[in-house]
Design a protein that fits this description.
The structure is a homodimer.
Chain A: E1 3-6, H1 18-27, E2 43-47, H2 55-67, E3 71-75, H3 78-87, E4 92-94, H4 103-114, E5 119-122, H5 130-146, E6 149-152, H6 155-162, E7 173-175, H7 179-189, H8 200-207, E8 212-215, E9 220-225, H9 240-245, E10 249-254, H10 266-285, H11 299-322, H12 335-343, H13 345-349
Parallel strand pairs in A: 2-3, 2-5, 3-4, 5-6, 6-7, 7-8
Antiparallel strand pairs in A: 1-10, 8-9, 9-10
Helix pairs in contact in A: 1-11, 2-10, 4-5, 6-7, 7-8, 10-11, 11-12
Chain lengths: ~350, ~350
């Protein structure tokens, strides 16, 4: 079994059997029987890539494609676009985040792009140049307005730490901090420093009004807590029914064995994996496939668990082959087998 | 056995059994058991890459990753950045060495970057454009101030030859001259031209105040000599204890069979390999792992021996496969097996 349940601080709902969660995740996986049109297995966007970083957005966006998304877009600075384009002809790279452009100029471009996306992953290779941080903030605002799922990673979390209001109460968001980012974020939003380690992810979720938190580490913790006052913020894209049902506090530990090499970039793969599950959740929600039994409010938590499981498995498989020499590029070809390992080869290939 | 000992000119300390050196090198190799965080297996930087050369810094930086470093940075001119980025998404490429920038502008950027690195490899693809030479000199000064290990190769050695004071007495440095560079450097710093060939590397070390010299050739010679007057220069990052203990003169010959094809770029692989061992030495020194029994003053010599052994082995393995058509890119995939050949498959994969 691949996950372990912690008693949540306020355990309104505790998942009794992790297998039930696996079964819920499986329902979000698009069928591969020729019944879907282009795009109905996910249109993923990654916002990041500027002067210093070009590999990170590539890893996130390429992961989405190898995970099973139909289309994968990178929204980046012109300073990064050439290199990112060169990594793969399968990516669609939009160099619209120009340092010389105003938010007013970029807004309609972002609105147009985001209207075509099911999820936006904000952060891989974003960096901290002020113009990139500004455009990331703008994109998050536009995503909220259109009900687009969000993954916030890396320097996107730096942005959230400085101004938590930009994400607060938006339950279609998954935050994916690593050890350092998690510690900083907890301090910035005022998590009680004496709280037990395994409860902190849930506390961050609660303080941020019910966003899902994926705390990366030796094992990954995935937490959601919508029981706090902040949960009363009306989430514009949840029906009243959803609002009532999602009053929950839950923390799960994913202990699928990962690799032991801690090369940079594996977090970008994770963000792309979670993003793809979220995109599938949106397609599911829109009725492209599935039985409609999974509530939209449940999607971010399931996506975080599924993304974590497959990424850790891919890291393990890459590590078995490459050992000490593992680089993140080695994870990409492992995603298919890693996915099949946990969700079945039928889910991978569509054939029995 | 892989190395042979020369009687050093002033043999304060002679290593009796090369196996003992191998065992010391092994102590610097980070464990691969999941106990380390990202970065604790080394953060390597390479300074080089301008108008003419882009492959050299790639070879050095990519070698670091395939050797086992967690993160590998290239610090280069904007004229080289696009190509270097395109070679691999796993590298982090900083195009901050702009010909139009002043040293005053670049200094804080270099300080910020170097504060995050365990080693800086100066030279691969550096070239001789005056602005690149100036920035390289600046980076060496900043590295000295922060006690960062240094590898000086290629046109970084041109810089040292013109102004030996920039490296003199800094015992955290390894110089890696090829035949031509070695001859020129010897002339520039005044090595007695009648000295026997196998003593010259030690003489250069002595005249430069105890830096480690890796003289590349048919066999590689690694020498350190801290017995000269120049050794009395107080190395700011060595304790008094180190200072006393490291009063040594030692020369080792590494005769691991290399390839017979002398394609350009193999020296860049070597510089990345030595750099990674130095980064591990820094992590070891900082207590990330290990038993603390290796003195910091010993690290450069061990790193040079280990880097030489693995690089020659990788060259041999590439040559067996490619023969006359060998190119340096062929060495990179051989590094893992070459490493395992000399330091054990457990050291490569973390498993027995």
């Amino acid at each position: 079994m691949t996950s372990r349940l912690f008693p949540a601080l306020v355990a309104v709902r505790i998942c009794p059997v992790p297998r039930a969660i696996l079964e819920q995740i499986k329902k979000l996986i698009p069928p591969l029987d020729g019944s879907l049109h282009k795009g109905q297995s996910g249109r993923v966007g990654v916002l990041g890539g500027a002067m210093d970083y070009t590999g990170a957005p590539f890893f996130a966006a390429m992961t989405a494609l190898r995970f099973g998304a139909d289309l994968s877009h990178v929204i980046c600075s012109p300073t990064a676009a050439g290199a990112i384009k060169s990594y793969s002809p399968d990516l669609i790279v939009h160099p619209i985040l120009n340092e010389q452009s105003t938010c007013g100029q970029v807004t309609p471009q972002l609105q147009s792009l985001l209207s075509r996306l099911h999820v936006l992953v904000v952060g891989p290779g974003l960096g901290r140049e002020p113009y990139m941080q500004s455009f990331a903030k703008l994109a998050i605002q536009i995503a909220r307005e259109s009900g687009t799922y969000l993954v916030i990673d890396a320097d996107g979390l730096f942005l959230v730490g400085r101004d938590p209001s930009i994400i607060k109460g938006y339950r279609r968001a998954v935050l994916t901090p690593n050890v350092v980012e998690f510690k900083r974020l907890g301090e910035q939003i005022g998590v009680n420093p004496t709280a037990p380690a395994h409860e902190r992810a849930g506390l961050i979720s609660k303080l941020l009004g019910g966003v899902t938190v994926l705390e990366k580490g030796r094992n990954d913790l995935i937490a959601v807590d919508t029981t706090g006052n902040e949960a009363n913020l009306k989430a514009s894209h949840l029906s009243d029914l959803d609002e009532a049902k999602e009053n929950t506090a839950e923390t799960i530990e994913v202990d699928v064995e990962g690799g032991f090499k801690r090369c940079g970039g594996q977090g970008d793969v994770l963000s792309g994996a979670v993003g793809t599950f979220l995109a599938w959740g949106r397609c599911y929600e829109d009725g492209a496939f599935g039985d409609g039994s999974i509530q939209a409010s449940r999607v971010p938590f399931l996506a975080a668990v599924g993304g974590s499981m497959v990424t850790r498995e891919a890291s393990h498989r890459g590590f078995v082959k490459q050992g000490r020499g593992l680089v993140t590029e080695d994870l990409i070809p492992e995603l298919g087998a890693a996915f099949a390992e946990h969700f079945g080869s039928q889910a991978r290939s569509g054939r029995l």
